Q: What sequence folds into this?
């Protein structure tokens, strides 16, 4: 039998403790500085993010233009700069044609809406006065009537403040109008030099195996982001067409305005569709309460079908995520981060899945992805 173990003495190293404390302090300071820089540069970061989204949307067209073709008996390929210019000209022509075709109808609907704004304001004021007069029409206790009046006054004040905030934000958005020119300009250089930027990034890894696997990882990340952005674009077009077509079929005024608004607001999770639904229902209620009820019911049913059936399938098709996982990701993002969490939930989960797949392949050591050297050795072994 062995004797009792002697207690191990814990040595105290003041120098090590000071180093740990210093490292923690430096980490906290670095985190604060990085957070401050990100907040200070948020406008530039947003500009870069929108430019990247624009590039992902345009890049498939550039790939189509760059497909090899035969010229003079030789196999040739369009230079990247020429391809980008041709795609820009094509997009400019499509935008011009769309404005020329839809512009008159959109202008007529906007003018009609602006002419009716005073009428809508007067009807809204009458409805508000009628609602405030309800407590005094019934023989209720004074305390109840006062409580109802105060509650309705608070709701009315909050609603007006909300409308004022939306109007103020809309006016502030005019500051971003130059971005309509700046984003395509920055996108031109990113699209033209995408290959050089990728080569410069990969050249920082000296080992060929690491460089190859990093290239595969970046390719998967790029494919995931591209699938997410394009699925969102398809969702916006689909929502605009269905909601605009449905309102037009019901004989609702301003269907083109609502269709464009629905497509654009689809980029803003939760708040965008909610704002569109409330605005459409409110405007239609000025004409007919029955029509407003039909519009609210139509938009509510379509949102349920879109959010739980159409949208998850669009996302799962490109990001290789099950529709149930898409729904759970959106719900988790809403719980953790609100509107921003909903917007970032699917790409974050998609990128986490990409990281997990590559980590799993490296961990188990039987990845189906081989480097060029591994492919040559495998080919030699099978011959």
A:
């Amino acid at each position: 039998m062995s004797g009792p173990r002697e207690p191990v003495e814990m040595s105290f190293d003041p120098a090590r403790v000071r180093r740990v404390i210093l490292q923690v302090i430096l980490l906290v300071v670095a985190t604060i500085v990085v957070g401050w820089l990100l907040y200070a540069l948020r406008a530039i970061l947003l500009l870069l993010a929108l430019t990247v989204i624009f590039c992902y949307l345009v890049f498939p067209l550039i790939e189509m233009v760059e497909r090899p073709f035969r010229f003079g008996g030789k196999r040739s390929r369009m230079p990247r700069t020429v391809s980008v210019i041709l795609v820009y000209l094509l997009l400019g022509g499509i935008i011009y044609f769309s404005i020329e075709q839809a512009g008159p109808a959109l202008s007529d609907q906007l003018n009609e809406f602006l002419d009716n704004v005073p009428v809508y304001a007067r009807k809204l004021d009458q409805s508000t006065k009628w609602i405030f007069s309800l407590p005094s029409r019934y023989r209720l206790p004074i305390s109840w009537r006062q409580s109802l009046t105060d509650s309705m006054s608070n709701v009315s004040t909050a609603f007006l403040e909300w409308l004022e905030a939306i109007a103020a934000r809309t006016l502030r958005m005019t500051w971003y109008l130059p971005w309509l020119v700046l984003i395509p300009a920055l996108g031109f250089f990113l699209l033209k030099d995408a290959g050089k930027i990728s080569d410069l990034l990969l050249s920082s890894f000296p080992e060929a195996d690491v460089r190859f696997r990093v290239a595969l990882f970046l390719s998967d990340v790029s494919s995931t982001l591209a699938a997410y952005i394009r699925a969102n674009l398809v969702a916006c077009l689909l929502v605009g067409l269905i909601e605009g077509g449905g309102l037009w079929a019901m004989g609702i005024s301003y269907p083109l305005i609502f269709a464009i608004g629905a497509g654009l607001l689809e980029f803003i999770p939760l708040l965008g569709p909610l704002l569109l639904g409330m605005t459409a229902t409110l405007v239609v209620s000025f004409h007919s309460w029955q029509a407003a009820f039909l519009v609210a019911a139509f938009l509510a049913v379509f949102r349920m079908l879109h959010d739980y059936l159409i949208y998850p399938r669009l996302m799962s098709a490109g990001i290789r995520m099950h529709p149930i996982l898409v729904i759970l990701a959106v719900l988790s993002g809403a719980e953790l981060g609100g509107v921003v969490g909903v917007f970032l939930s699917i790409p974050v989960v998609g990128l986490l899945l990409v990281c997990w797949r590559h980590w799993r392949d490296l961990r188990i050591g039987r990845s189906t992805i081989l480097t060029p050297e591994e492919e040559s050795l495998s080919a030699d072994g099978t011959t």
In short: The longest strand covers residues 69-71. The chain has twelve helices and two strands.
